[in-house]
Design brief:
Two copies of one chain form a homodimer. Chain A is α+β, with helices and mostly antiparallel strands and 246 residues long. Chain A is built from eight helices and eleven strands. In chain A, helix 3 packs across helix 4, helix 5 packs across helix 7 and helix 6 packs across helix 7. Chain A binds a DNA duplex (30 and 30 nucleotides) through helix 7.
Chain lengths: 246, 246
DNA sequence: ACCTAGACTTGATCTGGGTCAAGGGTTCGC
DNA sequence: GCGAACCCTTGACCCAGATCAAGTCTAGGT
């Protein structure tokens, strides 16, 4: 786990310990990255980059949450990815962005100018390999989400989202308590709806239903307690260990 | 375009001209691949590999169509990817398969034993980089599909699927006629439903509706003529050049 | 203290697509 | 030529989730 993090593309001073240091070859790539990396901060609601814009940088999320969204001309929007701290943003080798990237909460990103980053990738194969692993993980996540979008009921969708956020949050805090999990929802009801392919009213109703049925407890609108994670997974319709393999 | 194909992982005798030859460095990797590659044939309906099984090989589709599907315990299934000739199958670096891979039509695959293939990847960085590009393309496709699954109506879903298959098919045949497109549907109504998150009855009804409205013509059940590709794209709800960028 | 705005909840009603059911067409083996 | 197995179509009905419409709750701002 820690060894994997060490191979993540990132930077020295991030609160999340992830650096472009390769455990295998003992080289420190930070040297080659210096001068091309910089930080960018965004307020909640700000757009980081618009779909179709020229992409000047790649980078990773340091703190906060960003989301990838696609919008149709008539305004229907679908969130196609949730970027949590340590997630990579951008696509080496492509000139323009394919989706809108929006700061869902206040957000800090660690960026690298794209061209020099691509050059470095060619010279340091293990960075490309690490990037491949990360991309394959994202692909798996996207495909798991396709099952959620295509076949699950509203209640199962909510439970799936809560279990993903809960798991990520718990593992970041290293408090992998079996059973009980506590976390703050970083998304508005509307953002949840956009991620799940629902309306915000349906999200609200199903949250109330899950609360009524004792699957979750709510302190305020955003603070969630899950008394039994197994129960939540069950509601999500996943087999018990489904997401643990990733 | 041709240069890209030359970099695709593949083999010498495939009907599709794709080989692991690197245009950049003039090396021919086939040499290192010999002895670890082999062919496998499957009949329509056969399962290539089950989710959770140990993955002994990676490879690419030579002819026919395979699909990646996920199934819930109660039998609901969602197709999460469609593999057309030249598409890569498998995940270097992972021991077990994440989805069922099913032969949708008769299928021939060109396979490489996974371990030696992984070893080769480490030694020949440009293969890893080509694989990264392909994976990023797949990720884009998966995310585009999330919009289809989450926000589009049944009619738009059908139109989206037809435009994807039609485009792929037309570009393979190099008959990129502007406007009119003719192709054979390689999927049953049920497979279409599984891909679109619909029931087969709804697929059938919407196909009839598109036919009634002159968006498509049907000769038999599977042979499709699209008189105006622009019209089809319009029905799909994409902006006109949406899928062309990929 | 009061006002406003954004985030959320809840109710009433409507509808797109699911479900159930009854066919039709083709292709196979016998 | 006949049944059987698929694959596909069409109709009738139903329901989960969308839509429309009031509200409530909370945090700021003045």
């Amino acid at each position: 786990m820690n060894e994997t993090l060490d191979l993540t593309i990132g930077c020295e001073s991030c609160p999340i310990k992830h650096r472009a240091v390769c455990a295998r070859c003992d080289a420190d790539e930070l040297e080659t990255l210096d001068g091309i990396k910089y930080y960018r901060s965004f307020e909640a609601g700000q757009t980081v980059i618009w779909s179709g814009d020229r992409m000047e940088f790649v980078g990773s999320v340091v703190s906060g949450i960003a989301s990838l969204t696609q919008t149709m001309e008539d305004g229907r929007t679908q969130m196609v990815g949730l970027l949590l701290p340590s997630d990579f943003v951008g696509r080496p080798g492509r000139e323009t962005a394919s989706y809108d990237v929006v700061a869902t909460t206040d957000l800090v990103m660690c960026c690298f100018r794209r061209k020099p980053f691509e050059a470095m990738m060619v010279e340091t194969p293990h960075v490309a390999q690490r990037l491949l692993e990360m991309t394959l993980d994202e692909l798996d996540a996207a495909r798991e989400w396709m099952l959620v979008l295509g076949r699950k009921t509203a209640r199962e969708k909510i439970a799936s989202l809560l279990s993903i956020i809960g798991r990520r949050d718990a593992s970041l805090k290293l408090e992998g308590t079996i059973g009980k999990i506590v976390f703050d929802l970083p998304l508005t009801r509307e953002a949840m709806a956009d991620y799940l392919g629902l309306t915000l009213e349906t999200v609200s109703r199903q949250m109330s239903a899950l609360k009524r049925d004792g699957v979750i407890e709510l302190q305020g609108k955003r603070h969630v307690t899950v008394p039994s994670f197994e129960r939540l997974m069950d509601e999500a319709g996943d087999d018990a260990d489904g997401g643990m393999m990733a």
